[in-house]
Amino acid sequence: MYKSIFIDLDDTVWAFSENARDTFQDMYDKYHFDRYFRSFEHFYEIYEARNVTLWEEYGNRKITKEELNIQRFSYPLLQVGVDDKALVEAYSENFFADIIYKKKLMPHAREALEYLASRYDLYILSNGFRELQEQKMRSAGVREYFKKIILSEDIGVLKPYPEIFYFAMSATQSELKTSLMIGDNWKNDVAGAKNVGMGCIYYNIKKEAPLPFKPSLDMKDWKEVKTFL
Fold it and tell me: How far apart are CA 117 and CA 190, in angstroms?
């Protein structure tokens, strides 16, 4: 039935949350943020709460990529009274330079990709940034499984908007009726794919229930993909 499988990257294949936390820990230590925060956990709690909101605003086209990055890195420091643009610029640049070499993957993702790549055409479909995504995949050793990387930046439209899915079909010469989307974000990946007529697997690692509708597969672990495909 399916020929083309489109897969989200961050927290679906590449363990973004873990890799980002590890990188922030490195930045916290390198820039001696213990001068400003009670602990790394104190810093990261402040960062993470605001970061979620900022990504939602970016996804809804309320802020630009540049505004997203400036605000997400400056916010924690501003909350403890540190307004130092040079420090923010230095540690944010260092963060992006380092995170692309982190290698953690989601549990059993590599084995699943080995299995899928032997049977289907695999593509990355991500809202992530061009300057980061390919190198992250190379560092983690998963670039070889994918025929192409399609990013929202390619056309300036993010998932879940239909245009990015239609663009992905055109860019890969795929058809909606024989294409499947796998991702960890319900709105962007699952609902977005369903709304254009694609199959959809929800990588439901947080085991959320009940779901707004039944996806093609409600997957808690990458091991389950073999039972469906």
Answer: 21
- Classified as helix, coil or strand, 217 is strand
DSSP state of 205: T
Positive or negative CA dihedral for 112, 116, 117, 121? negative
- H/E stretch holding 192 reads helix 192-195
Query: What are the Cα distances from residue 161, in Å, to 67, 167, 187, 193?
Result: 21, 11, 10, 9
Q: Which two tokens stand for residue 219?
A: 């997957």
d(CA 13, CA 122): 12
Q: What is the pLDDT of residue 157?
A: 93
- Residue 32's region, left for phi above 0, alpha for psi from -120 to 50, else beta, is left
Span 88-107, mean pLDDT?
97
Rounded Cα distance between 96 and 102, Å, is 11
Three-state secondary structure along 57-93? HHHCCCCCHHHHHHHHHHHHHHHCCCCCHHHHHHHHH
Q: Which helix (H) or strand (E) holds 179?
A: strand 179-183
Judged by DSSP in three states, 208 sits in coil
Taking 90 as the threshold, does the pLDDT of residue 60 lie above it? no
How far, in Å, CA of 202 to CA of 186, rounded? 7
Is-contact 174 3, C-beta < 8 A? Answer: yes
- pLDDT, tens only, 151-187: 999 999 999 999 999 999 999 999 999 999 999 999 9
C-alpha 133/C-alpha 108 separation (Å) is 20
